[in-house]
From TrEMBL:
<keyword id="KW-0812">Transmembrane</keyword>
<feature type="transmembrane region" description="Helical">
    <location>
        <begin position="12"/>
        <end position="30"/>
    </location>
</feature>
<keyword id="KW-0472">Membrane</keyword>
<protein>
    <submittedName>
        <fullName>Glycine zipper family protein</fullName>
    </submittedName>
</protein>
<feature type="transmembrane region" description="Helical">
    <location>
        <begin position="36"/>
        <end position="53"/>
    </location>
</feature>
<keyword id="KW-1133">Transmembrane helix</keyword>
Length: 54
């Protein structure tokens, strides 16, 4: 992989994981399980970042 590609995907990955944690925590709180929601958010954020950076 090129350095520019790594840098771009790295920034996107961090942003999407961060958003995933925020939304996941809020979503998890509705069900009384914030840590589970955050975990799901990380996974969802990672998937979105991978899809968008391909």
């Amino acid at each position: 992989m090129k350095e520019t590609g790594d840098n771009k995907s790295g920034n996107g990955f961090g942003m999407w994981v961060g958003l995933g944690i925020v939304f996941g925590s809020a979503f998890g709180a509705l069900f009384g399980n914030t840590s589970l929601g955050a975990g799901m958010g990380i996974v969802i954020g990672a998937i979105f970042s991978i899809i968008l950076t391909l």
